[in-house]
Structures are given as C-alpha cells and as structure tokens.
Design brief:
Blueprint (H helix, E strand, L loop, with lengths): L8 H9 L8 H23 L11 H19 L14 H27 L11 H34 L1 H4 L14 H10 L7 H22 L2 H13 L5 H17 L2 H18 L4 H13 L10 H10 L3 H7 L1 H22 L12 H8 L3 H13 L6 H15 L8 H35 L1 H12 L4 H16 L4 H11 L1 H6 L4 H13 L9 H10 L3 H11 L6 H6 L10 H23 L1 E2 L3 E2 L7 H16 L10 H24 L8
Antiparallel strand pairs: 1-2
C-alpha cells in the first residue's frame, strides 16, 4: 500500500479558502501580490531600521496606518459582501470602489499622523482636532466595520460595535457598567487616532511581531517542511495502538507549534490523518474531532503559538519569549491529556495502528528532510536565547526557503510557486488585519470611559472576593464570547475586563492571561462556531455540529487543565525547580486518572466495563481523585495541599484497588 504523503500546497489552500475568498486573476491578483510585497518591505524597513525611505522617519502611528492602508483594502477585493454566497471570480465595481476609498482614507491618516501625535488630537475637537479629521474618522470607522463583518461575520461585527459605541451612552446605562460619556465625534476621533483603540495592542502586535510569524507559517505549508514533520510523526507512531490518531496529535502539535494557525493546520495534517484514522476503525466524526482538538493546541504550543499570544505579550509588556516559555507546560499537558484520552479510547474499542507496510521508514524520512530541523533550531535559538522575537521569523523563513531551494528537490519553488506563496500570505494578512483593527475598538471603548477599573471592582465584589468563583465566571464568559468572537477578540475582551480582577485577588498576571487565552482558544472546538471542528468535518465527511460536540467529549480533559495552571505559577515554569517538578508529576498522575475515568479504560489496569455495576462509581472516583491530585494548593480559598492530597488518595486508592481486583485479576464481568 502507498505511504502517506502531504497534499500539495495548492490543494490545501483551495480547501482552506472554500467559498469565503474570491479566486483572483488578472489585475486584482497582481494588486494582491504587490500589496503583500510592499507590506513586508515596509515591515522589514521598520523592524530592521533599513531606512529605505531616505530622509524620512515614520512614527509608529504612521507605520501602523501604512500597513493598514496596504492590507485593509484587500479585504474588499478578497471577501465578497454576501457572507456565505459563492463568490464571483471578478471583483465588482463597488468593492473596487471600497478598496480605493479605504486606501485613500488610511493614507490620509498616514499624512496627518505626525500632526495628530504632536497636537494630541485623539481627544477630539476640544483638543484641537480639525473638523475634517472628525469626518475622516467616521469614514474609516465605517470601513473597518464593514471589513470586520466580511472577515469575522455579523456576530463579531455587532459585538465589537456595540462596545465601540458604548462611550456615547456610558452615562445612561445602569450601575456597574456606567462610565464617563463622550460625544460621537470625540469617540470616533479617539477610536481612529488613539494608541488605545484602532492602533492599540492588537494592531501593534501584528505590525511588530505577528506578520513575520505568519510568513513563516505559510512558508512551512508551501515547502517540504510540512510534509517532513507529518511523515516524521507517521514513522514514529503510526503503528501503535490507535496510531493514526496519535499521529494526528503529534503531527498537528509539531506542525502547529511553528505555524500557529489552527484551521490551516487541520487542512494540512488532517487530509492525511483523518482518512488514516477512518481506515483503522475510528468513526468519521471521532476522527475529525481528534484532528480538530490536536490542531487547536497550535494556539498554545511554543515556539510560535498564534496571533493572540503576541497580543498577550503586548498586553503584559513582556518579551514574547517569556510568553512562549510560560506556555510550555500547559501546552504539553494539553497534548498529554489528549494523548491519554485517545489511548484509552483506542484500547477500550480495540483500535489498532496502521500496517507497517503503509508507513514511511523513519530513516528514510530523516534522510529526506533532516535539514529542516535546522530551521526549528534557529527559530528557537533566536526566540529563547537571543530574544529577537521580531527578527526571528524573518531569518527562519529565509533559511527555510534557502534549504528548500537547495536541498528540497521535491518541493523546490519556481516563479509560479513563489507567487502562490506571496498571494497566500497576503490573504492571511488581510483577514487578520481586518479582525485585529476591529477588535482594537473594544479596548478603546473601555479606555475612553474608564470602565475597566470600576467594572473590575464590581466583578470582584459580585464574586465575594472568591478566586474560584471569579475563575468560573471567566471560564463561562470565555465560553459564551468564544461562540461569537475569534480567539483574539475573546481574549482582548477578557484581558481588559476580567483579568485585572483576578490579578487583584493575588493570582499571577501571566497565569491569568494564559487562562484567558486557553479558554478563548477552546472556541475552535466548541459549538456552535467550532471552526476547527467544521474544517475537520469537511475532510471526514461527517456532520459538522455532531463533530463539534464530539470534539468537546474527545478533548474533555483539556477543559480542566487551565484551572490547574492558573492556581500555581509553577506550571508556567515560574518558581523553585523542585516545586515545579513536584507539581508536574502530581498533575501527570492526576491527568492519567482523569482520562481513565472519562474514557472508561485505565492505563495498566484495563477496560473498566469488566467491573460491571461498579464501572461508573470507579470512573467517577478516578475523575474526582485525579482532579484533586492535579489541582495545585487552593490556599486562596483555605484548602491546603495536604487536604487535596488526602482527598485524592481517599478517592483514587479504593477505586484503583477495586479496578485491579475486578478488571485486571478477575476474568469476565462482575456478576457474569
């Protein structure tokens, strides 16, 4: 039988775009390519201080406006106005007009950027902003709103603008959510000029960090690096119990850790792993849900993570390398928990691995692609040792392309492949800029009204100063917001409103923000939005909604993990190393017990169905005991580590003893 091979990049791109994007040709295609190249050159010029513009130095706000000017108009060229309708291949006149108006409006703000910063115009007419600035602010706000609707949908657009307009009526709303009111003109000018709104942390993170990593992620898909990492996973794990599913976890984690993109991860690795899982006995919806869960972890897995992680670094005002290091153990436990659930599922259902004849040989895989490991090494070295976050992805991309051209014979680029790569990068840039520009208005609204501080105090009061209640409130809010917002929008909303309250209760800021990121990330597998589940369902041929519900079940352990690390920053590699090791071991054992209880198969014991009537009492005791064992000390609510350990031992030891007697050492079912 033939060995698995990664699909061509063009095939993956076509699936990823589906019916959302126009397939550009002619002048429109060259506009996309030119705008993408120019945006990268502008970014490189700013970040590397090359001074391409002799005698001219751009302020940060002018640089941000120029990037928006190059990329936001592409939204109207690429995304049709009718959401969900099959897009035409040509760009209609009204979208061309919108693109040109957007370009003109953004260039206007580039031109006035220096005067606006020097004159403090962001505070409106009272601060000296001319009348034409107000009208141009209205125009750009409307254009950003329409771009957000096309890329993020009606739900995100309405949510963002409800918040963006809030300063106008802030004094009219009741109690806890009242704030300082501003006129509509002042609000519009603040949104478009302030470094707290349109030009806030979201766009700043994109312009200074994200864009380079997006280029690197696309390069991974369009060179031989993607197929190398996928085939590497198949050669290692394809033949073990439930091997195809474990390959999905390993390959998606490995590939996603460097691309940071969830849906493209599904469409790259999933085209190989999902059919392989179905062939070895996994139902279509289960296979799709496993790949969706595995790819979702890309948002949390260093070294690249996703766009939201860069926004987090900007929020916390720390180097991105610090965020990546803090995410290491939570991401490992994410994938470890998923791996153990899949292992238990495969064992309980008797699902074997792929036949060795179907799998690539490890030696051959390494022989054909070992040189791609140098790219990973360079990226990690620059991120964690040199701490050159903004420069690292550009150097890694250059090395990746050079290696691919010199040594990667099967995936070597010609001019056609280069243009496809540039166009794919531009599509990604345009979509993300539209979303980040829109959600930046959330921050601006709360900054302008001063609501952040007062609402934080009110939330702490409502929670009765109870950390666990605040965390549950955060999880529920994240869950609800994740249904209608992107991960980044959800994170920003919570980072502004809820994170300060949790920090005020004594929790570590990094742990709190990682908690928000984690819960926002889960929207990729949580219905009704569940973009990763829907993408995987398309490959598997399974019902999308059924797949998303099954994703929640298959990955149920990952809904518990954020509560573990937010309560003890040792799991973020912050603190005494002996304590870090102790907490990690305790959590490992706890996760194994939880997964065994959730799936009904305990490692080294067997299928808990053989316990007969006592199956569910044993499973529930394992889940509860595992939770107690994995949970760090709850001293903030008066529960010591010794108490938690006593609960854990009191629940798991009797359950384990019963399981050993009834399952491992006694043939047949109880009562048979």
């Amino acid at each position: 039988m033939s060995q698995p091979h990664a699909p061509p990049a063009e095939h993956v791109t076509a699936e990823a775009e589906g019916v959302r994007l126009r397939e550009l040709s002619g002048i429109a295609k060259w506009v996309l390519i030119a705008a993408t190249v120019l945006s990268v050159l502008v970014c490189v010029n700013q970040l590397f201080s090359f001074n391409f513009l002799v005698g001219a130095v751009m302020l940060d706000n002018q640089y941000f406006y120029l990037l928006i000017a190059l990329l936001l108009p592409l939204t109207f060229v690429l995304f049709p106005a009718e959401l969900g309708a099959p897009p035409r291949t040509h760009v209609p006149w009204y979208d061309t007009g919108l693109a040109l108006v957007t370009l003109g409006a953004c260039l206007y703000f580039v031109a006035i950027g220096r005067a606006a910063a020097g004159g403090g115009w962001e505070y409106g007419a009272s601060a000296g902003a001319p009348k034409h600035v107000v009208w141009m602010s209205y125009l750009l706000w409307a254009l950003v709103t329409e771009a957000l609707r096309r890329t993020g949908g009606w739900g995100l657009m309405l949510s963002v603008n409800a918040c963006a307009l809030y300063p106008v009526v802030a004094d009219l709303v009741p109690g806890p959510i009242s704030g300082l009111a501003s006129s509509l003109p002042d609000t519009a000018v603040y949104h478009m000029l302030s470094s707290e709104s349109l030009l806030g942390v979201a766009i700043k993170a994109f312009a200074e960090l994200v864009i380079g990593f997006l280029i690197f992620g696309v390069a991974l898909q369009y060179t031989g690096a993607g197929p190398f990492f996928i085939n590497f996973a198949f050669s290692l794990l394809g033949g073990v119990r439930g091997g195809a599913a474990k390959v999905a976890i390993f390959a998606s984690g490995l590939l996603g850790s460097m691309s940071g993109s969830v849906v493209s991860n599904v469409l790259t690795a999933g085209t190989m792993t999902i059919p392989a899982m179905k062939r070895t006995g996994f139902p279509a919806s289960t296979a799709a849900s496993i790949e969706a869960c595995a790819s979702t972890g890309a948002v949390l897995m260093p070294p690249v993570m996703g766009a939201t992680a860069f926004v987090m670094a900007s929020f916390l005002n720390v180097p991105y390398s610090q965020v990546a290091l803090a995410a290491a153990l939570p991401s490992i436990f994410y994938y470890f928990g998923l791996f153990m659930q899949i292992d238990s599922y495969a064992a309980r259902h008797g699902l074997k691995g792929l036949d060795r004849s179907e799998l690539p040989k490890l030696g051959q895989v390494l022989k054909e692609g070992w040189y791609y490991l140098f790219v990973v090494a360079l990226l990690v070295w620059m991120l964690l040792v040199l701490k050159r976050e903004s420069h690292a992805p550009f150097y890694a991309t250059a090395l990746l392309i050079a290696i691919n051209q010199v040594l990667g014979k099967q995936h070597r680029w010609g001019w056609r492949e280069l243009l496809v790569f540039i166009a794919a990068s531009g599509k990604l840039f345009a979509e993300l800029v539209a979303i980040l520009a829109g959600v930046g208005l959330l921050i601006g609204a709360f900054s302008l009204t001063g609501l952040t501080g007062t609402l934080t105090n009110d939330l702490v009061y409502l929670a009765g100063n109870n950390v666990l209640v605040l965390l549950v409130m955060g999880a529920i809010t994240s869950f609800i917001l994740g249904l209608g917002m992107t991960t980044t929008a959800c994170y920003i909303f919570l980072a502004v409103l809820l994170a300060p309250g949790l920090v005020k209760q004594g929790l570590d800021p990094m742990a709190v923000h990682m908690f928000m990121l984690y819960w926002g990330m889960l929207s990729f597998i949580t219905p009704p939005v569940a973009l990763a589940s829907f993408a995987a369902a398309g490959i598997a041929g399974s019902p999308p909604m059924k797949t998303s519900w099954e994703s929640m079940y298959v990955g149920s352990i990952i809904y518990f993990i954020p509560f573990f690390f937010v309560l003890d920053k040792a799991l973020l590699l912050d603190g005494d190393w002996l304590h870090i090791v102790e907490v990690a071991i305790s959590m490992t054992i706890g996760v194994i017990a939880i997964c065994g209880g959730l799936q009904g198969y305990l490692l080294a014991v067997g299928d808990l169905r053989r316990a007969g009537l006592l199956e569910w009492p044993i499973r529930l005791a394992l889940i509860a005991g595992g939770m107690a064992l994995a949970t760090p000390s709850l001293t903030t609510v008066g529960v010591s580590q010794a108490t938690l350990n006593a609960w854990a031992l009191g629940l798991t030891l009797p359950a384990l003893g019963l399981a050993l007697v009834l399952v491992r050492f006694r043939p047949g079912r109880l009562g048979s």
